[in-house]
Design a protein that fits this description.
202 residues; alpha+beta; 2 domains; four-stranded antiparallel β-sheet; 31% strand
C-alpha cells in the first residue's frame, strides 16, 4: 500500500484528515504496507450491498490497527476553526444534472463532481481535504449538480508565470460556482488518538 497511517485512519474511520487529531508526528511521514486477508463473505456481500461491505471492512481495519498498532481512540466534540461554505451575493452558478450515481475526480488543483443527491456536501468534504480545515455545507443547496472547479494554489500563484490564469481557490469558488468560504468557529466531532505505537516486525 505504501501509505501513511494517517491515510489509513482516514479510510478506516471514514473521516477527513482535518477531523483526526493527536498522535505522534510519524503518523504523517512513515509509510506502511498492510497485508490482511478478509472474510470471503464480505466480498460476496458486495454484490448486493456495497455500502454495508465497505462499513464491514472499515471495522476490520480498525480491529487490525488496535491489534498491530495498539491504537486507542475516542470521539469528542471540540470548538475549532472551520470554514462555512455559503452562497455568494451573486447567487449560485450551478448546473443541475440527471446523471445517475456519482462521478468524482480530484487532481492537479481541480475538482469535478457530477450526480449524486448530495453534490455540495461532497464538495465541502473535498475542500476540507484541500484546505486542511473542516468545511461545513451551509448553502442549503440540495439535489444533483455538475461541478468543475479549477484553481491555482496560493504558493504556486506567487511564483508561477502569468500564463497560468487560474484564480486562487477562494476566488474560483465565487467566480465559477457562486459560492464562498467564510472562516468561523464551530463545534466539530473529531477522532482523538489516545495511543498508537510502532508495531513490532512480523
Amino acid at each position: 500500500m505504501n501509505v501513511t497511517l494517517k491515510a489509513i485512519l482516514q479510510w478506516a474511520f471514514d473521516l477527513p484528515e482535518s477531523r483526526i487529531v493527536g498522535g505522534p508526528s510519524w503518523l504523517d511521514s512513515t509509510r506502511w504496507d498492510i497485508d490482511a486477508k478478509g472474510d470471503n463473505s464480505i466480498d460476496r456481500q458486495k454484490t448486493y450491498d456495497s455500502a454495508a461491505a465497505a462499513a464491514e471492512k472499515r471495522l476490520m481495519v480498525q480491529s487490525l490497527l488496535a491489534e498491530r498498532f495498539s491504537l486507542a481512540t475516542h470521539s469528542e466534540t471540540r470548538e475549532m476553526p472551520i470554514y462555512a461554505l455559503v452562497v455568494a451575493k451573486s447567487g449560485p452558478k450551478l448546473l443541475t444534472t440527471k446523471a445517475d450515481g456519482n462521478k468524482f475526480d480530484r487532481w492537479n488543483n481541480r475538482i469535478e463532481i457530477e450526480g449524486g443527491d448530495n453534490t455540495i456536501s461532497v464538495l465541502a468534504e473535498e475542500l476540507a481535504e484541500t484546505l486542511g480545515r473542516v468545511v461545513v455545507d451551509k448553502t442549503g443547496i440540495k439535489g444533483r449538480n455538475k461541478i468543475d472547479l479549477n484553481w491555482t494554489p496560493d504558493d504556486v500563484a506567487a511564483s508561477s508565470p502569468p500564463s497560468d490564469s487560474r484564480p486562487s481557490l477562494f476566488t474560483a469558488l465565487q467566480e465559477q460556482l457562486g459560492l464562498k468560504l467564510e472562516p468561523q468557529k464551530g463545534r466539530v466531532q473529531v477522532l482523538v488518538i489516545d495511543r498508537v505505537k510502532v508495531p513490532s516486525a512480523n
